[in-house]
What we know:
This protein is mainly beta and 773 residues long. It folds into 3 domains: 21-91, Carboxypeptidase-like, regulatory domain (Immunoglobulin-like), CATH 2.60.40.1120; 101-220, Beta Complex (Ferric Hydroxamate Uptake Protein, Chain A, domain 1), CATH 2.170.130.10; 221-575 and 599-638 and 655-772, Maltoporin, Chain A, CATH 2.40.170.20. It is built from 6 helices and 47 strands. 5% of the residues lie in helices and 56% in strands. Strand 23 (358-374) and strand 24 (378-398) form a beta hairpin. It is globular, with a radius of gyration of 28 Å. It has a 22-stranded antiparallel β-barrel. A 5-stranded mixed sheet has the order 10-15-16-13-14. The chain has a 4-stranded antiparallel sheet with strand order 3-2-5-6, with no helix packed on it.
Amino acid sequence: MKILVYSLLATVWSLHSYAQQPTHGSVYDLYTQTPIKGASLYSNGKLLSSTDISGRFTVDCSNCTVTITAMGYESQTIAVKNSSTQLMIGLTAASYNLNEVKVYAGKSDNNLQQPKSVAILTRQDLHRNDGLFLENSLNLVPGVHMEKRTMSGGQRITIRGYGNGTNFNGTGYKAYLNGIPVTDAEGTTILDDIDFSILGKAEVIKGPASSLYGSGIGGVLKMYTLKPATYGTRISQEALTGSYGLFRTNTRVEYADEKSSVMLNYGHQNYDSYRIQSGSKKDFVSFIGDFHSNDKQTFSVYAAYNNSNDQLAGQLDSIQFAQRKDTGEVPYLKNKGYVAFESYRAGLSHHYQFSTQVNNLTSAWFTGYKQSQAFAVGLSSNLAQNIGARTAFGLNFTGKTITLSGTIGAELQKTSSFKKSYGLSNNITGALTGDIELSAMQYNVFTQWELKLPQGFMVTAGISNNYIEYGITDRLTNSANPTHKDQSGHKTFTPVLTPQFSVLKSLNEKVSVYAGISKGYSPPTSGQVVIPQISQVNTGLRPEKSIQYEAGAKGTLLQKKLSLQVAVFDMEITDKLTSQAVTDNSGTVLYTMTTNAGGQQNRGIEAEAAYTIQPLQQKVFSLIRPFVSYTYSSFTYKQFRSDNNNNTKTIDYSGNKASGVPPHLLNAGVDFISKSGVYLNTTWQFVDKMPITYDNQHYADAYTLLQAKLGYRHAIGQHFQLDVFAGGNNLTGSRYYTMVFLNANFSGTAPNIYLPGPYKANWYGGFNLNYKF
């Protein structure tokens, strides 16, 4: 009997002990999957625990409500029903502080500890306007200017004056989406198929970041798709309609629990346009999922399919633009110009926390697209596939007075494309004029280390070694085509070393200053590698290179209500690509080739400030936030000429202002949020006049834009959340351009170079309705 009693007591005690087991888990950045150190967990106002360097925590809590807070992140409250549950809690960055949190080099940290100019756009920032066009948000970032050729395609992003070397798509910067490179191995970035409406976060690293990300003198753009922020199942329907036939819908299903989170979204977009033959139609399907097998290991999956068609009407000349004409270029109209783009992306990443000292993030991806474009004089077709992988080991060593953390990794990407071109006149396809197969490969190894010292000092040093290879096969070179100039060739560039070094000093917990130096590079395109007239590889061609000196200060003042950031930089670009004519003894031009000659010096100032006012409880508004940002650019050519021939026809552009860069950019706005749920976002933007030719004889006029959005958010019962809104763009009816085609120089008849924006105010309205089970 005694044995039975003792057995029962032991069983009850063991069950009681099991019920009192502590709850374990991790807190991490929702979009980057990086652990958040120092997050606090509260229940009923009592501090239960804080996360360690790996984001892990342990709390004694069962059937209780826990609130998780971390500096720079939105707080989250969850119900803990079973103390044995392994909790995985993802937090999103807070919307209204410039200096709280940034994620750089795969780590979460206070922005005051980042020795570089980094900008973060939260979901709130991305949707302060209609949320469909990234330029409305990105152009508020000092040092960044985004243009586009069509309503939602042909985007060109210039960061610190670099990236406008082509009038089509983007070069000179590196772009990622959910860790998958959007930029191909040739250095070209196409954003036509990115669904900006479902982005949850975007990050811009300004200036060379080649020590971690390879090619890109301008910098890096990292985009992240929206993810479920809270536990449970949610169904959302979003709809927007507006002027000129604008119509957009998103239908989304989300699910998240302690072990996983998934999101599936279908979006449809249509636009008739304010301009002749400039309509657009797009369809997007996106899936993203995070799966936590335990608090050490996370698998992430991303897959997307996109199909778009944007019509092309060509450009306007300066007179047509000044007179606000609704017309296009005749060849484009006769050929019914368009860009059709169909793409898919798939990526898998694995994050593993080996210990508090070692972690690894490895990603692999496969992307592809089919592009068809009818333009003024031809029809082009491009079929491309990208495959690649990236791995990075994070290392952390903590001592009594110093901390050393670092990243060691490698990235490889290969692009295989098949490009064909045909003649086109009056929408009738002509003969095959080009048939090129391209194999481009970029790969690099990198490392970067941070040493935190006493007295608030931190030293950062990194370096990468970058490799570039191009292989080109011209399929028109055959016995049946003896007069064709062969464009085949193979070139392996000399590896490029790109180091960076910086020092940061924290003056106190609220203010820091820094200074640094970094190097970057951008490769030539495949079309510049081969000289078709002589069927030879341009063996002497080198990537453009840069060295940047930067100093800045960041801080929060007045009880963290006032946020400030200032950066000054001097970027020297060398080995700029230019043309060189090869002549015979009589001076007759035999052919033209691309060569490295001259440079450019970009000196600038970037500043931004925001003041957050949170009135007392009895006031009408819960938040008032005025903000301002300013960019000053003094960019000039150095020893840069029209060609490298150095004869009487050579024009020296040295000392001239760099074309395509406004000297002054100014943005200002005010955000209001009321306690009743009404909100108002207002933005004013000034873009200075800018030279559009190397000789500085022609300028694009300055313009201003005024935009506003008024909305109302309200919870309906316990399950529904409603957001209704209306807004307007270009409220003052300014004449402005969405892109200018840059030229070396021109005289006589003005060329067609302007792509105009809507000449008058345009409006939109919509709603977001979601139901949470």
